[in-house]
């Protein structure tokens, strides 16, 4: 039987301090199958980025196990990981004079030869990735001169060009307007359905997540990451428990957050 694409077994995530390790939530147990679209949801500061960085190997997890395709994360080489997984941290690309086309082409570097020479196939993949994300018209513009929303789409195009079976995206819908949010969301969902990609995104877009996700990873007020489905999350009132506020309340009937009072 095929191993899960991602598996966390009693995985403790957090940061090291001089006094010792500092986990930011209870041990995590989740398992992701090929082709699943997972939305990681939780209030600000609850640990969404930390979970994604721990799965991608950007930061070490503190204990337990993180397995990618059945292999323990620390034992996977950087080049092997780059072929299996791309991580999109859209707010953190700090880069100087580079065009959109060049930045998206970086996605091909794990696959090019040591001279980083692009084949016609690489160029086609880069072209298609920009096309899918609606940024082909920006290809000769400097990345640093783009709007935040345009940068966001370019970062996603770079990950698509990397053509990894697993893509992790940290808040990929930040800065996007309503239509672009919906477009990127449906693009990501399509990649899972049509191309069997496995995608995990962190997002504050609960309403979109409920419509598209196969599974929700919800970090609640008790510092637990709960793996659930959109239907079960609504049925079991998990959003009401996770987002406690005297200003808004999740309404399970409309599947939206409603203001309690203005
Ligand atoms: N490098 C770090 N060292 C120590 N603590 C950190 C570090 N980075 C983040 N934290 C803390 O870990 C906790 C989780 O942060 P994280 O960025 O993962 O949350 P998040 O859910 O992604 O938040 P947001 O929705 O605001 O982006 C926070 O309390 C944060 O202050």
TrEMBL record:
Pfam families: ABC_tran (PF00005)
Primary location: membrane
Keyword Iron included in the entry's annotation: yes
Subcellular location: Cell membrane
GO molecular-function term, one example from the UniProt record: ATP binding
Keywords: ATP-binding, Cell membrane, Ion transport, Iron, Iron transport, Membrane, Nucleotide-binding, Transport
InterPro entries: AAA+_ATPase (IPR003593), ABC_transporter-like_ATP-bd (IPR003439), P-loop_NTPase (IPR027417), Siderophore_ABC-ATPase (IPR051535)
GO CC terms, sorted: plasma membrane
Sequence ranges assigned to domain ABC transporter in this UniProt record: 6-246
UniProt membrane topology term: Peripheral membrane protein
Coiled coil ranges: none
Record-given protein name: ATP-binding cassette domain-containing protein
